[in-house]
Design a protein that fits this description.
The protein has 125 residues and is mostly beta strands. It is built from no helices and eleven strands.
Length: 125
Amino acid sequence: QVQLTESGGGLVQAGGSLRLSCAASGGTFSSYAMAWFRQAPGKEREFVAAVSWIGIAYYADSVTGRFTISRDNAKNTLFLQMNALKPEDTAVYYCAAQAGRVGRPTQRIGDYNYWGQGTQVTVSP
């Protein structure tokens, strides 16, 4: 099936930027909606951003204006550009795929079929 591998996490000072990548293999990447979720210690996993199979992007209110999700179907890769980072952005970030050529990606964890292992993002004050 589909394998997803995240990269690009690290430690950055508040106000800085970071770009996450998610490499996909083993499926028809261009037909999947893709999303980023995150989970901080002691918190529930939450939706961050998603992009449909035709490239339309959606964002959680907490990251709108700071984060940008994009995809390169030719390279089977998903990106999350994170700017103006805040300490509350600290979390493990997960890449996820939703099969079925959905018109608009959902924000529900259970709707996603494939998940990466996550990459740690730490934002210092």
